Amino acid sequence: MRSRKTGRRDRAARATALEKLPVGERHLGCTREALASRSGPCLPDVDVVVEEDEFRAAGAAQQKKLREHAARLRREPFFGDRIQRRLVPKRFRDLPNLFRLELPGAWRALHTVASHPTEGTQVRIVWIGDDKRYEELFGYS
Q: CA nearest 112: which of 82, 72, 71, 67?
């Protein structure tokens, strides 16, 4: 099925593999038609959720940037700076991963990405705060 020169599947083999997918089955959120057309990355629908109290505590500039980041997180769930496991605060150690987003005025937001086979992918913004709160949270001050 793979070409010896390039290591890639040839078109006939790819078409055969697509034929084996049952009608309506999704592969990583892609329909058979999307896989065949190769029109771009196929991602499942991504929900972006933020705690309402955290969002309201942020200023107008931070809220605007969070809305922009939410649109990008729907396309790229792993957007942001990944925080190494050894640096994750105790409060967030139960989360599967943690990412940092930069916001205006030296504010930051922390988000996690979780997937479930039946519910899809969810990006949850778990913390929003200014530089002073961020340093206290991570023990830098």
A: 82
Q: Are residues 117 and 81 in the same domain?
A: yes
**For residue range 86-127, what is the model confidence (pLDDT) as tens digits?**
999 999 999 999 999 999 999 999 999 998 888 888 999 999
Distances (CA, A) of 55 to 66, 80, 108: 9, 18, 12
Beta-bridge partner residues of 81:
100
Task: Let me know whether 117 and 55 are in one domain.
Answer: yes
Q: Cα 30 to chain center, whole Å? A: 17
Task: Quote the pTM value.
Answer: 0.68
Structural domain boundaries, residue 103: 46-138
17 with 64, same domain?
no
Count: domains in the chain: 2
Q: Where are the alpha helices (DSSP H) in the chain?
A: 11-19, 32-37, 52-57, 60-75, 131-138
